[in-house]
């Protein structure tokens, strides 16, 4: 099946006619969804067994990272990186200026999966919110993480929503499908949303979704940031 993409205006460059490609994913699949496909009739592995193993594997990988190790597999590579600027060769790590970040990159098998992919251009939905960047002021990062109690700026186009309609707004969607609607929105503009991440937000990986009725439409449309962000 071809990978569908559309062209949207690139607001990150000064050129007025620049566009960038945005992949139109067919949907989101959880680990449980994948395991249910593996545990098909006749399989020796059940979904429950697969989930139990995944939990053990996840804990083991996290423990290796916390021990300062790099985890290498044919599917993914997990390592640690530093962000922030050091003022001199004698400067030392300062949690106020520097952050340790977990980095995940594709392994050999996922790199091979890129080979042979075909693409198909489709028209962008004119009334769909488009999310370009999520800037976390607390960690001074972009499209990387969200800090509990911190301020985040979303930029893009067609982002403004009706705050009185609970079906519209900014949502953090966890891997299991649980959604949290952001209630403290400081700025609500077509090209910019400024909101506070709840201090009680559970740490983990989240998709950032904006739902809105735009251009006078009566149907709520949904747009999603390309990158999954970590709440911590």
TrEMBL record:
Domain of life assignment: Bacteria
Alphabetically ordered keywords of this record: DNA-binding
Residue intervals of the DUF4469 domain: 132-219
Domain Bvu-2165-like IHF-HU-like DNA-binding: 4-120
InterPro entries (alphabetical): Bvu_2165-like_IHF-HU-DNA_bdg, DUF4469, IHF-like_DNA-bd_dom_sf
Name the UniProt record assigns to this protein: DUF4469 domain-containing protein
Organism: Hymenobacter guriensis
Lineage, top ranks: Bacteria, Pseudomonadati, Bacteroidota, Cytophagia, Cytophagales
């Amino acid at each position: 099946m071809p990978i569908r993409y559309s062209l949207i205006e690139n607001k990150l460059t000064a050129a007025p006619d620049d566009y960038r490609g945005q992949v139109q994913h067919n949907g989101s699949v959880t680990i449980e969804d994948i395991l249910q496909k593996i545990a098909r009739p006749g399989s020796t592995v059940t979904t429950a067994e697969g989930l139990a193993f995944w939990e053990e594997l996840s804990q083991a990988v996290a423990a290796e990272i916390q021990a300062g190790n790099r985890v290498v597999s044919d599917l993914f590579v997990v390592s640690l990186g530093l962000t922030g600027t050091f003022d001199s060769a004698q400067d030392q790590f300062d949690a106020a200026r520097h952050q340790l970040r977990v980095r995940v990159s594709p392994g050999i098998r996922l790199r091979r999966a890129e080979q042979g992919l075909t693409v198909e251009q489709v028209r962008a939905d004119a009334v769909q919110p488009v999310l370009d960047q999520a800037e976390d002021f607390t960690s001074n990062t972009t499209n990387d993480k969200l800090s509990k109690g911190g301020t985040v700026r979303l930029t893009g186009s067609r982002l403004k929503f009706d705050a009185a309609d609970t079906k519209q707004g900014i949502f953090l969607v966890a891997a299991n499908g649980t959604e949290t609607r952001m209630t403290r929105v400081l700025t609500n503009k077509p090209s910019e949303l400024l909101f506070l991440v709840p201090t009680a937000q559970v740490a983990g990986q989240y998709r950032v979704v904006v739902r809105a009725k735009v251009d006078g439409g009566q149907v709520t449309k949904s747009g999603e940031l390309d990158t999954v962000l970590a709440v911590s």
